[in-house]
Amino acid sequence: MDVPLTHLDRPFDYLVPAELDAAAVPGVRVKVRFAGQLVDGWLLERADDSGHTGKLAYLERVVSPEPVLAPEIARLARAVADRYAGSLADVLRLAVPPRHARVEKEPRGDSDEPPMPGEPGGGVDPRGDSDEPPTAGERGADVDPRGWRDYPAGPAFLRALGDGRTPRAVWSALPGEDWAARYADAVAATVAGGRGAVVVVADARDLDRLDAALTGTLGPGRHVCLSAALGPARRYRAFLAARRGEVPVVIGTRAAMFAPVERLGLLAIWDDGDDLHAEPRAPYPHAREVLLTRAQLGAAGALVGGYTRTAEAQLLVETGWAREVVADRATVRARTPAIAPTGDDPQLARDPGAATARLPSLAWTTARDALRADAPVLVQVPRRGYLPSVACAECRTPARCPHCAGPLALPSAEGVPACRWCGRVAAAYACPECGGRRLRAAVTGARRTAEELGRAFPGVPVRTSGREEVLATVPGGAGLVIATPGAEPVAEGGYGAVLLLDSWALLTRADLRAGEEALRRWLTAAALARPGSAGGRVVVVADGALAPVQALLRWDAAWFAARELAERRELGFPPAVRMASVTGPAEAVADLLAGARLPDGAEVLGPVPADEGRERMLVRVPRARAAALAEALHAAAGQRSARKAADPVRLQVDPLSLF
What we know:
Blueprint: E1 29-34, E2 37-42, E3 61-62, H1 71-83, H2 88-95, H3 101-105, H4 136-139, H5 154-162, E4 168-172, H6 179-192, E5 196-200, H7 204-218, E6 223-226, H8 232-243, E7 249-252, E8 264-270, H9 287-298, E9 301-306, H10 311-318, E10 323-325, H11 329-335, E11 338-341, H12 345-350, H13 361-372, E12 376-380, E13 389-392, E14 408-409, E15 418-419, E16 439-443, H14 446-456, E17 462-465, E18 473-474, E19 479-483, E20 490-491, E21 497-500, H15 503-507, H16 514-526, E22 537-540, H17 547-554, H18 557-571, E23 577-584, H19 586-595, E24 603-609, E25 615-622, H20 626-642, E26 650-653
């Protein structure tokens, strides 16, 4: 039943009246009476009898005869709920989009609206409801593995997919790689073998790129896109096309991780380190973990790819669950741009001010030389806006809102400071420490950087790409592109220079994944540069002795991931161990943990302050006892739910942020 009470997280038996016998099939939405109320539910299974000895009520009605909940997805949802100490109803709300009655009534393959890119083109599977795999003629031509030949294990991975086997790979993409085309190759090989595929990407830009690549490889109408940005009708139409078997491939953002696909052969995710893959709603599953769980349950292949490699992906390689697909070092050196830091000893000897300058001379001359060669220049800055953080010009105390203590920011050169949290304007701001009224920049945003570089390079076009306005591509010719991480556009022929500014803002964050995230953002931007042999250069404004910078200089994400995993294993942090976060009012957190029968060896850490007066406790166990920890926390939450405890407690297993 779709109820928000943890202690009711179990199936209930109901009788099926004769008039609903034909429509009440497993997977349909139903209405039932429970505790005097009419509630929504899912019909999971039909049986001849019940183990319940009391009186059974009847189903009230079948909401729709469409069996939208596939048996495989129901099993997966239960496994995900158990892994994340959540409830099945919460997972099913993520797995199946809300019903759109008009879409259900449309003839199959028909719509009042023209199909959008990635929507089925009106064609219905000619094999109908046949359970037989497609013939060689229906599968199409063999996939050309040339795009994967730079990776010694790449062609074998494609052959395994085409042969119906279940290869599992962690792929480190080369700089300049057309990753969408490589994923299209893997999907095409899977389809040629008579099976389907699900591919998850982080955002709409990546989805558009993969959509175009798949359309070119498979042809139109062979895949659908699933994304919350599509809107209710289009999203439900794409979901039904997949559920009805009209298309063999589903791609999308994290909304696609539960997509129902028949004869599933490949589950893939691109850039699994992006925090957009983490679901912000309970039970907070990560798309990577859902796809890997699904591959394990359904005996399907798996592909985890990116320019970088997370500690979680490295664990898959070290445990033997997956094989790494990487290029040899000679190929990496040939494809990598020339990368240089500004904070090492030789650079500091030539430019002593490089240690404190925001744009050291090396970065400035690199950009100048690229612009003179009529090549575009990409400048990555970690923050958007103009001055997203300001401080007192006299004593350097961070400027805070007098009402909510949020950070003050300047929207423009002529603007007045305003709070980033509550939006209140602080036109008459005075520093509480020294009384000063002048403000200085504490953090410089993308728009201020564009303004500064526009003055440094007069006459050169300057474009910005960020959350407010995302550029998809940059035309050829000289120009400066100022972008925030994740919004870097692709340049025709590659960038002549890439400047990575304000590295301290990434490396000094109080976060377990600070170094990993910094390297991920740098590699994503540097991958857009031309190879070094073609004049491509990358300058990172950071000390060259730092481990993330060393990994960038050598383009060796695997080395950094192995180092990161070893350190986390030594310190007892995920993914080497399983850790759960319990957040809420102090009394509620203590109450839940007191009622939890934690497994042997569990360590309780904390409390530490959270937000809005709440506190957080961490529970750590070895990976072998992860299931027992999730079960104990779920049972304790159920006890509080049954007692109707007033204060809510948020449970998160392996959250991205621990501090």
